[in-house]
Amino acid sequence: MSDVTTTDLYEVTMVMSYLREGMTGPATFSLFVRDLPPERGFLVAAGLESVLDYLSGLRVGQEDVDAFASAVRRPRRDLQFLLGLEFTGDVRAVPEGRIVLAGEPLLEVTAPLPQAQLAETYVVNQLSHQSTIASKAARCVLAAAGHPVVDFSLRRTHGPQAGFQAARLGAMVGFAGTSNVAAATALGIPAVGTMAHSFVEAFTREEDAFRAFARSHPGPVTLLVDTYDTDAGVRVAARVLRDLDRGPGSAVRLDSGDLGALAVRARSILDEEGLPEVRIVASGGLDEYALDDLIRSGAPIDTYAVGTRVGVSADAPYLDSAYKMVEYEGRPVMKLSSAKVTAPGPKQVFRLPGYTDVIGLADEQPPAGGGPLLETVMRGGQRTGTRPTLDECRERFTADLGRLPSAARRIRAPVAPRATASKRLSALTARVRRRIEEQTAENARSSAPERTVSGPHGSAAR
């Protein structure tokens, strides 16, 4: 089976009905985030490359048909018409690394209706998860205020693929390295790592552990100093580093306790021992809030290693994302459900200075001083360009972050800019709403039961 079966069952049942009814006209679906999570002033668009890889390979094979038939409890012959279905549509999207706001489409798919529908689950999964993690990581970079941040999240992420993505997304927004060997090797990210408490515990004495580690690893080393008594551990590490002339580039790591206070004492001990060049690395339950507190307190920490809370975006682990049809066969459509109203028609986002973004229709001209965010990245089921490098994605992020209002960059109580609708989009929304309401009222009238009244002799008069 292929990734085609990584979908929700109702996508399959809808596609079956569409094909039976001959509904294969072009449909446009728009993916957007209704509202930002609490304590977020912006989002970083991410996951597009995974989506394009998926769409370019989306083709229903025989094993997929068999899996679908089993899932819907129907004979294989009833679903054989799905065999060979592949993605031949177009995709317009915000490139990875760009900053986006609530309500703005991150991606729009235009394809024959069954194709666009079948793609929904995977597309939403990848864009939602990766944008969530990239946005969390970006806030860590902001909070660190220029200090290096590295990714230690692999062991706590929700599976190896999520860990790989976390390493990539961290690098995309400015992380200095990752502990994930697979990601470091595949993506060219610096691999970083130290030792575990188990290594120290395996030796009779802490000093024996440090010396053994240093013997095995010529050059700069990082020694974990809080297995027993942190202050004593720093002194032992200092002695070993000084004896072996390993000071330059080496570090001690603090992984628990009051990291700010421990860092102050560790810095004092290292300086007293004549090792001002030995750095201090801090880890252990860190995220942007902890980093912000430590930076503001003036803690003498050189590098921050973030893991669990960032790799799963612990405080905001999901996005209120939606993938909604906005047009079918040239007919604009919208949803009127309470609190989940959507806007009709294919769209474009125009960015003006100060993030006064305008959401307009796809065929609108940009307002003066504005530029479009969505680019055509797939046409006829094929990529329109080459895969961007991590450096290119990072450059986009850095440029957008530099223009983001300071209130949106705040770690606590940020104020997110809000996009507005263009006049043409507002007018179309009003027309489509009116059309739907009129149709709904007409349907209600036509389906109402006929009223009967009694005639003068008790017979029914109509």
Provide structural commentary:
Helix 5 runs parallel beside helix 12 (288-297). With 462 residues, the chain is an alpha/beta fold. It contains 16 helices and 21 strands. It has a seven-stranded antiparallel β-sheet. Strands 7-6-11-10-9-8 form a six-stranded parallel β-sheet. It folds into two domains: 3-133 and 316-426, nicotinate phosphoribosyltransferase, CATH 3.20.140.10; 194-282, TIM Barrel. The chain has helices spanning 9-20, 48-56, 62-72, 113-118, 120-144, 160-172, 181-187, 197-201, 206-216, 230-243, 259-272, 288-297, 308-311, 390-403, 406-409, 423-447, and strands spanning 26-33, 43-44, 90-93, 99-100, 105-112, 149-151, 177-178, 222-224, 251-254, 279-282, 303-306, 321-328, 331-332, 347-351, 358-361, 371-372, 375-379, 382-383, 420-421, 453-454, 460-461.
What Rg do the Cα atoms give? 28 Å
Name of the CATH class of the largest domain: Alpha Beta
Quaternary state, please? single chain
Strand order of the largest sheet: 13-12-1-5-3-17-18
Uncertain parts: none
The largest β sheet comes out as: 7 strands, antiparallel
- CATH architecture identity of the largest domain: Alpha-Beta Barrel
Distance between the termini: 61 Å
Number of separate structural domains? 2
Estimate what percentage of residues fall within beta strands: 15-25%
SS content category:
alpha/beta
CATH H-tier superfamily of the largest domain: nicotinate phosphoribosyltransferase
* CATH topology-level name of the largest domain: nicotinate phosphoribosyltransferase
| Overall pLDDT score | 95
Strands, total number: 21
> Which percent bin holds the helix content?
25-40%
Shape: elongated
Number of helices: 16
